Amino acid sequence: MALNTKGKKTSLTEEASIYQKRQDDLSDKERIKNMTGKQKWDFFKTYYLPKLLVILAVAGVVFYIVWVDFINKSHIYMRCAILNESITDSTLTEFSDRFTDSLKMNYKKNRASFYMYYTRSDVAREMGADTGSDLSEISSRLVANSLDCMIASYEDVENIYLKNGFIMNLNDFLSEKEKKALKPYLVTQKDEADKVIGISLKDCKKYRTLFTGRTPITEEPVLYVITNATDEGKKYVKQLIHYLYSDELKQTA
Question: What pTM does this model have?
Answer without folding.
Answer: 0.72
